[in-house]
Amino acid sequence: IRFTTTWGIRTALTMVEPPNPGLKNSLGYENLMDLEWVKANNKTPEYRKMSAWTMIIMSSEQDIYNAMENLANACGEKSIIRLCDKLFSLLNCSYVPGASLAEHLISFRKNYTTLKTSIVSNPGFMTVSTGLAAALLLRSLHQDNSLNSLVQSLYDIKPLTFEKVYDRLLIEETCKESATAETILFQSASKIQQIFRRSTSK
Known about the structure:
mainly alpha
């Protein structure tokens, strides 16, 4: 996920207090409030490190909604709140073992599609590549250990795209459901044959 505007980082720092008081100043975050400093250093490792720490600070659960609220107000765009809500929905979309994988895939795709629509409506704010979306989809399966080998193999797809991963997972689920249905059908047929044999042997 890439926030593409400098004001996004700079404004965020005015809204969210770090979990550890004084962390902002001790790490030199006040430099991010200096536009001239940002222009001169936005290609340096120091700036990238500060940007990364800013994202960590913004992830503070008790403050994140207010941070997005204030960020949207500062930018004059309330739609940014909705965009972030959709981003969080995608990040928190996790598969529950035993549930329908097909339904999970459909739900994840729906969240991803709505997020892309919001991104288009807010050009320049952030981007989510198809490779990142694929990785997030695979990550959403982490609770089901039985899918580990499949997930690891899908990470090796070149190029890694959302559509390829989505289609492969859907095919795997369809094959699994078909195999289960065939097993049930075979077991039912066997029971019927056993009943028939018993009835004819009497």
